[in-house]
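Sharing a chain and its predicted structure for anyone who wants a worked example. Both blocks are below, sequence first, tokens second.
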Amino acid sequence: QVQLVESGGGLVQPGGSLRLSCAASGRIFSINAMGWYRQAPGKQRELVATITSGSMTNYADAVKGRFTISRDNAKNTVYLFMNSLKPEDTAVYYCNADVNSGLAERRIYWGQGTQVTVSS
């Protein structure tokens, strides 16, 4: 089994910054892509950013130029640096990871979510 634990959410004023972290632990042979998603009240979960094992990144248009995703493969950790935050960024942020746990074991795991609130 694999666990993803997120941290770093909180309340921030518009224009502020936050850094989210997500650490994977457990039965991990290797991790393929990792990503961040978010879900605002009354809306569907949406992609924020993804990063491959080779550090190729992809961003939602709404966050391009403001958010940066990175990963530390040695620590099985993915980060999301969020700058110039807007009220519309308010949501629960979830990380996920595409994990290889053995020769024929590959599965996507999700974290429990961390709340980000942007408000004055």
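Comments welcome. The chain has a mean pLDDT of 96.
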